[in-house]
Amino acid sequence: MKFIQSELPADIIYLRQVAESGFSSTTDANLDNWFSFEEMERMISQGRGTCIKAVDEEYKILGMIYAQQENPINGKEGLEKWVINIISVDPNATGKGIGSGLLEALENYAKNRGCIKMFVYTNKSDEHIVNFYKKNGYSDAGWIKDYQYGKNNSAVFLIKYL
Questions:
Q1: How open is the CA angle 106-112-118, to the nearest 5 degrees?
Q2: pLDDT in tens for each of the 162 residues of the chain?
Q3: What are the DSSP calls for the chain, one per residue?
Q4: Rounded Cα distance, 42 and 123, in Å
Q5: What is the largest CA-CA distance in the chain?
Q6: Nearest CA among 92, 82, 158 for reference residue 127
Q7: Domain 2-123 carries which CATH code?
């Protein structure tokens, strides 16, 4: 398994397919409600984000992760914080360390660009995903009631110091 920078726009259709299949059985299955591949491309073209893909020996994309700087309007502080917007692994390839490998590759990339804090938020009730991040060194940074999609869908925020 290799973890390499995505090639945009060439990879976009395959990244979307991996994301859609990875989220197909979740409450977040409709990616258009919460994620924009067009915005991802724009942020990457501005040098404010990155998308890393996991590829097998035949270069088939089995996973992807995208993160971006928090906000440059906050000066150095905003540039030192990155937010993970999406991570997805092909459901047929889970349990093989792909997600953890994607996180590690992303953290190394961001750290080399001055990042000292990596944030992520996800559904508070999704214990599997929360535990995945905790297993990879992220800790609780708090939660907000009814943060996503209205009532009864709170978000938990996690942080890792790089």
A1: 50
A2: 999 999 999 999 999 999 999 988 777 768 888 899 999 999 999 999 999 999 999 999 999 999 999 877 767 777 799 999 999 999 999 999 999 999 999 999 999 999 999 999 998 888 999 999 999 999 999 888 877 666 677 889 999 999
A3: -EEEE--TTTTHHHHHHHHHHHHTTSTT--GGGT--HHHHHHHHHTTSEEEEEEE-TT--EEEEEEEEES-GGGTHHHHHEEEEEEEEE-GGGTTSSHHHHHHHHHHHHHHTTT--EEEEEEETT-HHHHHHHHHTT-EEEEEETT-SSSTT--EEEEEEE-
A4: 26
A5: 44
A6: 158
A7: 3.40.630.30
Token pair recorded at residue 18: 């991996």
Distance in angstroms (rounded) separating the CA atoms of residues 157 and 149: 16
Name the residue ranges covered by the structural domains of the chain: 2-123
